[in-house]
Design brief:
The chain is mainly α and 284 residues long. It has a single domain, classed as Orthogonal Bundle (ABC transporter involved in vitamin B12 uptake, BtuC), CATH 1.10.3470.10. It is 82% helix and 0% strand. It has 12 helices and no strands. Helix 1 packs parallel to helix 6, helix 3 packs antiparallel against helix 4 and helix 9 packs across helix 10. The longest helix is centred in the last third of the chain and has 32 residues. It is globular.
Length: 284
């Protein structure tokens, strides 16, 4: 039977669980806005945009400079993305920013082949080695991201459903876009220590998508997304520990991401069954 309690009495299991639970709050707030505003591609672009920042941060200050470098790069990319998207369209702007930033990162890494190994944990995550310092930084970044979204929540929702109506209502659309993109950037950097940049999209996108399959109401949906992310994180970590104890070596961050995907599939099935029942009731 899967043990959901004992593993988390170990510090190296408790720290990443706490971080994942904090990220679950971001999944419910920031992730819901990403889903409503169809910012999944923009999130992908911002995930890759941190690449040159982490390389430069590592070159300047070693491992301790990775997160600060990534943070600066992510915020700059978020601001550039808003500016470029206004002129070229969102998808074109994201493609330009993604290509430019990722190409720059590849060029920087190619200058010193030994840097590639140092970047592995940033891309693929290193859940079990999360330190108290990394946890504190990540919690602070998530808090800023969530605070920004909560403070502009009504603007974000109105902007998501009708940009023209938002303008007429006096919503500062560009400022709202900046807040949304910077919030995504902050979560990307905060999650890098835990799930890695290549899996951060699972945190930002999957729980909110699963929630939308269960409810169309925005605030309840955000709460459901938070619950899904938290439960999937808890189960995923417990499964990873059980697998490791049984001699199966698997990436904890990947297992957590797969658990979120499993939750999404379950939510789709439940939503489909419920809609079918409602349709039959309406016909009857």
């Amino acid at each position: 039977m899967l043990d959901l309690v004992t593993p988390f009495q170990l510090p190296f299991m408790l720290r990443p669980l706490v971080l994942l639970l904090v990220l679950a709050v971001a999944a419910g707030t920031v992730g819901t806005i990403v889903n409503l505003r169809r910012l999944e591609f923009a999130s992908d672009g911002l995930t890759h945009a941190v690449f040159p920042g982490l390389v430069i941060g590592f070159v300047v200050a070693g491992a301790g400079g990775i997160l600060p470098g990534a943070l600066v790069a992510a915020i700059v990319a978020a601001l550039v993305l808003v500016a470029v998207a206004r002129r070229t369209g969102t998808e074109t702007g994201v493609a330009i920013v993604l290509t430019a930033c990722f190409s720059l990162g590849v060029v920087l890494v190619s200058l010193r082949s030994e840097w590639a190994g140092q970047m592995e944990s940033f891309f693929f995550g290193s859940l079990l080695t999360v330190t108290d310092a990394q946890l504190a930084i990540s919690v602070g970044l998530v808090a800023l991201a969530v605070a920004g979204i909560v403070a502009t929540w009504r603007w974000q929702v109105l902007r998501a459903f009708d940009e023209q109506a938002a303008r007429i209502a006096g919503v500062p659309v560009r400022g709202t876009d900046v807040v949304a993109n910077v919030a995504v950037a902050l979560v990307v950097v905060a999650a890098s220590a835990a799930v890695g940049t290549l899996l951060v999209l699972a945190v930002l996108i999957v729980p909110a998508a699963a929630s939308r399959a269960l409810t169309r109401r925005v605030v309840p949906g955000a709460l459901v997304a938070t619950g899904i992310a938290a439960l999937a994180s808890w189960l995923g970590m417990a499964i990873a520990f059980a697998a490791s104890s049984g001699g199966v070596q698997a990436s904890p961050s990947s297992i957590v991401a797969l658990t979120m995907l499993a939750a999404y599939l379950v939510a789709l099935a439940v939503g489909a069954v419920r809609e079918g029942a409602l349709a039959r009731r309406a016909i009857a």
